[in-house]
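Discussion board: Methods & Data

I've been asked by a reviewer to show the raw model output for two of the constructs in my manuscript, not just the figures. I'm not sure how much to include, so I'm pasting the format here to get opinions. Each protein appears as its amino acid sequence followed by a line of discrete structure tokens. Is this the kind of thing reviewers expect to see in a supplement, or should I convert it first? Here is construct A:
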Amino acid sequence: MVGGGVVGAACALALSRLGLDVALVEARRPDAWSPGSPDLRVYAFAPDNASLLEDLGVWGHVLEARAQPYRSMRVWDAAGGGELAFDADALGRPELGWIVEHGLLVDVLWQAIARSNVRLLCPAAVEALQQDDAGVELRLDDGTRVAATVAIAADGAQSAVRRLAGIDVSVHDYAQRGLVAYVQTDLPHQATAWQRFLPTGPLAFLPCADGSSSIVWTLPEDEAERVLVLDDQAFGAVLTRAFDARLGEVAPRSRRVAFPLRRQLADTHARGRVLVLGDAAHVVHPLAGQGVNLGLRDVSSLVAWVGKARGSRQDWRSGEKLERWARGRRSEAAVAAHAFDAINRFFSNDALLPTALRGPLLGLAGRLPPLSRGLWRKAAGL
């Protein structure tokens, strides 16, 4: 396993629990999470992936440390029309999901790795890769050679292992940036995830455990540059208007960071005995908050595949088996990525026809419980 982020660490733990001999290669030991230094990178964590972490024995530690359940979602368009709403009570759930910091997830997973049988090679980076029908050999930057029957790359969007394995990617640049920060609002967030579609891109307010909100604001690159350098008072005023003062006046509570947005898909999730997972395999638009959720579903799918094959005394590492798993994951990632792309294109413009249709379509979906329930179940992985 190469890459010790959320997806890589979870995969290493899960495969180790199946009785496999797992080595985890990571370039840098992550910083310890601190409740006094909130991580700007947060996730809208889905119930199916909470179940995965519960099976790994770490989800309880996440909840004890800091995780904000959200019980409602509200989605509407700036041009007016109806609103799409999801409510936990109507769906028979105690919550729809949780807002969790990236750093906290990595911290608890690494603590679990320290208690596991996973062999940790850190700091170390992969410099070369060779493979044949029998297995893979990785050469690390300190000269160490690691032999394995299968190598799994979860080393991010710029994956070195993916490149060394000869797996190409297709990339679409959105010419947008995702601006993230913590803010305080006059009105309470109501344990609700809010998203307003603007012609420039979606704006999300995600509820946090301390009463603040984490924002993810999609903006064209030039507009993102302008907003980043505003002083706090001006930024709060611009953000309040963009959010239509839905929660009253907004004031920043943290620094602001903006990252480029793109769609990136690996041509395959397997090349020989090398597999790719998470951002190494797919990067999607953040508007639906599905990035880490898709990555962890790669993990759940692989673990189920391995467990089923071992249970029937089949070799899950055979080329045919790996290719079959990879085709399924590639298909799901491509469908999700292009669906988010279509939503972003439809809502992030001021053309007359889309503008006239967006609000009524959201309202129609909100008035059809089977449709809204199906949309939520898809996002929740249920």
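Construct B, same format:
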Amino acid sequence: MITVRDLSKVYRQGNREVRALDGVSLTVPEGSIHGIIGHSGAGKSTLVRCLTMLDKPSSGQVEINGVDLTAARSDALRKARRRIGLVFQQANLFDSRTIADNVAYPLEIIGAPKARTREKVTELLGLVGLADAGAAYPAQLSGGMRQRVGIARALATDPDVLLFDEPTSALDPKTTDEILDLIQSLHYHANLAVLVITHEMHVVKRICDSVSLLEGGRIVESGRLVDVVNRLDGRLSQALLGIPPHVDLHGVGTLVDVLSSGPKALQPVVAHVSKAVGAEIAILAGSVEHLAGTTFSHLRLEVPDGVDPQSVIDELKALGADAALTSSLQHVEEVA
């Protein structure tokens, strides 16, 4: 389990202070995948560095399975850090070492017996789908294959948690999905706590069961994926369900947003409401997604002149959907 309490990091630039992290708190339980998403400069990479003690936080606590890394010193800290597997955007492999030797490196550092190291390397390369690549060098592999090697290396010391810093941003869509499938299978296989730092909504949709939005060093929205998506006025919800911010259009009627989940997402709500109010309600935009095992539907409807928009909203809510005037929802900027 990863537990972060009130984590802050302040850098000094001359006489000026830059607060890269400002009171970040989160928990990633064993067996879950949590996504941290945000713009460049939001503090995502600083968070990774502080979680691994590559950069010492200014204040706050980082615990891995109950061990406070911020209080640990020397040998105790080194031992605790072995329980963390870290995978970067670029695999950062040693070009002069074979793939097998790259994976073996963390085991060499801790002085593991050579026979055990060879056995572990063989096991890990098989686990990430590179059983026949041990004798190759990084330059001979594709970007996706190098990332698989980086994942195998991160698993070498049997960590309790895995941290991924932009693991797919340099990969093509097909390879991205292959790496995400691998991360998900490893999470099930080893029951790890996994934290994924990303700016890609596709990553969150594909593998995460919880998510946080980081802005200016603060977590401004966080929760289980099914919960944040179920908030009609949530920024993560609107980003994940794909309807762009509303722009007033000349000549259209009043706009209403409606959000449904589970079996209700498949109901013909527009047909029901059109019949109930005696007017044709048009769908201007919509998105249907299957996220974290639940189907969600987000529609933007046009209520024609002469029809009370509140009557439409009331009918939608009576059907079990959440609905509101589009103009009453907060303006949603792109979150990543």
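Answer (T.O., handling editor elsewhere):
This is acceptable in a supplement if you add a one-line summary per construct. For B, something like: The longest strand covers residues 16-28.
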